[in-house]
Give the backbone structure.
Amino acid sequence: MRIVDLNETTKRNLLSDLLKRDPNNYEEYAGVVQEIIDQVKEKGDEAVFAYTEKFDKARITGDNVRVTKAEIEEARAMVNPELLRVMERAMENIRDYHQKQVRHSWFDSREDGVILGQKQTALESVGVYVPGGKAAYPSSVLMNIIPAEVAGVKRIVMVTPPGKDGKVNPVTLTAAHLAGATEVYKVGGAQAVAALAFGTESIPRVHKIVGPGNIFVALAKKAVYGHVSIDSIAGPSEILVLADETANPKYVAADLLSQAEHDELASAILVTTSQKLAKEVSEQVERFLEKLSRREILEKSLKKFGYILVAESMEEAIETANEIASEHLEIMTKNPFEVMTKIRNAGAIFMGEYSSEPLGDYFAGPNHVLPTNGTAKFFSPLGVEDFVKRSSVIYYSREALEPVYKDIVTFAQAEHLTAHANSIKVRFED
C-alpha cells in the first residue's frame, strides 16, 4: 500500500479521489434506468418479466414470481445446519439491539386545556432489495428485515434476482423467512425497484424501499424517491483505521483487506501517527495478498483507493477521520474510548483490537447498513426509526385558545393569509 505523509494537499487529493466513487457520478446509466422504470410503469408485469429474462436468463411469470411455502421449505432443507444455527444466533443479537431503538408515542397535557404530543406509527409496507446471482448475502437480509419487523411493519416484501433456474438462492430465502419477510418475489435490478415503487399486477407497491444493490439499483432508487421513501443511495464499502504505535500491524492489515475485497471501488485507509506501523502494515498487506482468494479485486481496490496516511499528531489524525467520515471506523490506539469521544463523523465505530469490522457485519447486533461516501456527516445507520413515521398531535380547548387567538391572527395577517386569520377569529365572534 502507498504510504503518504498527511498534509493539506494529500488530504485534499484523497478526498477528491474518494468522491469519484459516489454513485451520483455515474449518470451515464441514468437514461437506461429511467427507460426500465418507464416501461414497468406502463406495462407492469410484462416489462418486469421481459427484463428478468433479458438480464437474469430466467423465465418468470405471474404464476411463479412469488415464492411459495413449498419453495421456502425446500430452501431451508438445503442450508447447512451449522450456518442455520449461526444465523439464528446473529438474529437474536440484531433483534435485541434494535428493540432498544423502539420509541413510543407521547402526550403532554397542561392545566389550561392544551394537549400536545407525537404519535409513532409503523410504515404499512416496506420493500427490501437483496442482491442475487451466485453470491448470497444473508447478513444483509437480516439487517434490512429485522429492524422493520421490530418497528411493527406488517408487510415486508423482499425482491431478489432469480438464478437461471428461476429459483432464489436457498440461503437468501431462508434468511428472509427467518427474519420475518411476508412476501418474496423473484425479480431484481431496476425493474424490481420500479415494481416496488409503482406496483404491477403481481407485485403490489410499497411505501419505502431499502437494501443494497449495484449502480442500476442505486440509480433506480434515486429515480423513484418521492413516489416512495428510500433508505439511501449506497456507495462502495469503505474502512478507515485510526491507529497509533500500540496497534498490531497484522490486525490492521487484515481489517483493511476485509473491506477492500468487496469490489474494485472499495476504499481502505489507515491513518496513523507511527511511521514504523505504516511500514509494517504495508508489509503485512503484501503477505496476506499472496494467500487471499480475491487477490485480483484486492489489488485493484488498494491501487485506486488504498492509502496509509502518516500524521504528525493524533489530533490531526482524528480530524482527518472526521473529514473523511468513513462508513466503518476502527480505533486501535492506547486509549480507544478517549479517541472515540472526539469522533463526530462515522457510520459505525469499532474500538480496540478485538472489535474488527466483520464483527459488525455479521454478528454483534448494530446494523451494518451504513452511510458511505462521507454521508456519515449527516446520515445514520439503518434502524427501527427508518421504518416508522411521526404525526404531531395538537388539542386546544376554547379556554386555552382564547388568550392567544389574537396573537395567531396577527401572525397570519403579517403573512397576508386572511383565511388563516379568519379561521381563528370566527371561533370568537358572536
